[in-house]
Amino acid sequence: MNTDVQPASEVSSGEALLVEPSRLSPTRRAITTVLRSRELSIFLVLLAVVVLATSKNNSFLFSSDGWRNFLLNPSILVLLAVGQGVVIITRNVDLSVGSVMALTAYLTGRLFIDHPGLPIIVVIAACLLLGAVLGLVNGLLVAYGKVPALVITLGTLYIYRGIMLTWAGSDRINAGDLPREFLRLGTRSVLGVPMLTIIAVLVLAAVGYYLHTARGGREMYAIGSDPDAAVLYGLPVRRRLLAAFVLSGALAGLAGALYTARYGTVSSSVGSGIELQAVAAAVIGGIAIFGGSGTVWGAAIGAFLLVTINRALPSLGIEDFWQRAVVGALILGAIVLDRVLAVRQARKLAESRDRS
Amino acid sequence: MKIHTRKPTALAALLLTATFAFAGCGGDDGGDSGSDSGSGGDGGGALSMTMLPKNLGNAYFDTSTKGAMTAADELGADMEEVGPETGSPDAQVSYINTVAQQGKDALIISANDPDALCDAIEEARSADVKVVTFDADTNPECRDLFINQATSEGIAAKQLELIAEEIGGSGEIAILSASANATNQNAWIATMEEELASNPDYADIELVDTVYGDDEDQKSFDQTEALLQNHPDLKGIISPTTVGIAAAARYLSDSEYKGQVALTGLGTPNQMREFVEDGTVASFALWNPGDLGYLATYAAAALVDGSITGEEGDSFEAGELGEFEVGADGTVLLGEPFTFNADNIGDFDF
Q1: What is the pLDDT of residues B146-173, one digit of tens each?
Q2: Domain at B152-286, CATH from 3.40.630.30, 3.10.20.740, 3.40.50.2300, 3.30.565.10
Q3: Pairing of strands B331-333, B145-148
Q4: Is B223 an 8 Å CB contact of chain A?
Q5: A236-270 pLDDT per residue, tens
Q6: ipTM of the complex
Q7: Residue B270 is nearest to which of A64, A176, A264, comparing CB atoms?
């Protein structure tokens, strides 16, 4: 009857979402967004892993240890993945987070040893601050040096690790050096949810909300989509880049403090290689490695998936080598999927342009 | 490219300068920590020795030096401790040269490199300094004696003994090792497997799994969790690596398995103190570095006074530790590993 509605029913809701979202009703739009999101598919994979591992061994989830570890183990990686996600969205990468985390983990131990009685909150604040400063160095070099972040942060990865090696040497922080109260922070639960998980989720919620709604957050996506256009458009590119790197550094700093609380030992090799896990979590979670798309929710689910797979595979009796191979396959799968979706999206946009 | 070619040259120049500097200023450098028995023997009279650990400020070597000082006091010898700040092989060379110039009677050293120090040690020995290595050996031909902390048989046997005692002689056990290609770990594990199969005392103990934590805290943690999950009847875990045992202890200490699954292995008292005090771990093993330094000092004294020459079969008295015999390759074995538990852990700080 109504000719105007006709074309709308012709195209799929997915295409409508892409081409002209306002054509769909808000509820339908929200549902379609969720159903078609990368986050959901990663979440389903995570669910499948958990179901499989739990069916093999009940205590994987349904024991007090199993439940706690499921929530607790990924929380440190979630923090790193959120920071990394923000940086990758701006079409950069921060490879120095592992070294930053090591420095702040050691700082935590040193502060407790050298200044007994220091309140926990002060120590955590100091770690956040140190992380932010180290992140600022990265940000300044990237924003003003005009050198690719990959190179800059690879450099600072080694420099920060070198500082760590010089500072800590063969010394290590032991559980006995740390206040009981601080160690309990690493294992304590509130209403069945570990403290570290609560901290990670709060950070995730704040960053996710900012990226989704705030002007600064949207500008980060714009910068990542097309840096040159962002400059031409007059966006404060440098300021946003600095903010992204400072955030990533500060979160790595927080992760360092929490690492110490959780594991109780710090040696100079803490966090070696974890930067790659953070990048992997972000990529698996649907953040495009060339920036401009994806969400930190996805990165957080990616972190959960990585850690949970690592927990599940030994329980399923799969050997070490295959555990790494599975992670590799996930990364490749995520990137291929990314590419396929991008090509399909471009084609669909072109088709609907031709049609109109 | 430029950086790569320039670096070794710069390093060499630095080292050369450092060597000259140290050679130039004789005896009073670097030895400010722990030299409470005075320094600088004059050749005649009292026995003079130098203790050269891998690096200073390392609690492990502080303990071994303390043992050496005790032995030196008993012997009426002068003992001085010198050492570099960091454990790099080149750093020890200048100290060895100094010892030779001072005409000390003996040098007790934990070598940072089996080969790199040999020239310097050779020079010292030609100046009639007796050289005893401990903790880490050089090539057998360039020193007089090596004080070996433990043999793989001793380490393997001790750990089985501890776990058997804690689980009451029967049940499933598992091993949490370092990396799958760590030579010493694999030697210990192989010896333990043989012992489990052949020793009737261990007939009821079954080794159900060996996992690898790669000497990373986090991975060792995860592997401990997997072990507990996959083997619900597990009674005990042996972790012959200091990183592994600390991570496993941290995991157990706040898990539902605390007190139900026994844990032992090789650890250091400082790392394990927390977990021994809270009851997660009853006992663990390692050699006592204090005894190591003590024995090395007695061995050096025996070499200097000529009662032994370092030949296989020579024997000497080492104070309260008793009598020791020199084995093949000029090696003296300290004995079986030392057991740390709630009663004695307070006496150690390393």
Answers
A1: 999 888 888 899 999 999 999 998 999 9
A2: 3.40.50.2300
A3: parallel
A4: yes
A5: 999 999 999 999 999 999 999 999 999 888 888 88
A6: 0.76
A7: A176
